[in-house]
Backbone:
């Protein structure tokens, strides 16, 4: 069974640009979570999608947005990139209880 | 609101010594509790989970955790540390029973001294 897959693995953008990160959940999982892991700041909850709808979002500005597609895959968009957005972005999928994580996308803003 | 507090951002133990990583939680409903491990430049891997069954939960790699409701704690232990245990460990809580937001602690970096 394939795990959670994220693409791309690495992404380098310049300040002010937009970044799009993608996540494919484990087959049968309907919930997708996005977390930001910046250096020294731990895992910060970004967004939670379930059955195609946004269920909750963390304390992030509106330029962080996303969506979940009918096949439950998800996309995270970060507009007007700032240097502080440089981080590892982790996606996780869940069906009932625990979350299973992908390997992450390392976003570097220069 | 749920929350998780991990005491100690960095723990260092000698190889072969006891590992104890502390986690306290806050939840208005019976919680589901988890411990995850993260090796450098990788995603998180589930070590073990508590879902209201046995209070002592055994996980992978020789780790276990005990749910103590009276102390609102879910500390992670391993009797004998191995060099390969060096990693970041995260405690997490959710409301369980159905998909719900999972809240993570700030993490504890475990170092193993030879």
Residues:
């Amino acid at each position: 069974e394939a795990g959670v897959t994220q693409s791309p693995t690495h992404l380098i953008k310049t300040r002010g640009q937009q970044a799009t990160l993608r996540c494919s959940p484990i087959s049968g999982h309907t919930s997708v979570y996005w977390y930001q892991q910046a250096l020294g700041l731990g895992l910060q909850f970004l967004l939670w999608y379930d059955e195609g709808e946004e269920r909750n979002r963390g304390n992030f500005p509106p330029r962080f947005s996303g969506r979940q597609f009918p096949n439950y895959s998800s996309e995270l968009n970060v507009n007007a990139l700032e240097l502080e957005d440089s981080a590892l972005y982790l996606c996780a999928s869940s069906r009932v209880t625990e979350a299973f994580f992908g390997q992450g996308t390392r976003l570097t803003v220069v | 609101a749920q929350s998780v507090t991990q005491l100690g951002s960095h723990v260092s133990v000698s190889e072969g010594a006891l590992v104890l990583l502390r986690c306290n939680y806050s939840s208005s409903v019976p919680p589901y509790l988890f411990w995850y491990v993260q090796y450098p430049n990788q995603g998180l891997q589930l070590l073990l989970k508590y879902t209201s069954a046995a209070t002592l939960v055994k996980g992978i790699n020789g780790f276990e955790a005990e749910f103590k409701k009276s102390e609102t704690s879910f500390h992670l232990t391993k009797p004998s540390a191995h060099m390969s245990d060096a990693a970041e460990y995260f405690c997490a809580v959710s409301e369980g029973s159905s998909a719900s937001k999972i809240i993570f602690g700030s993490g504890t970096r475990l170092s193993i001294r030879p």
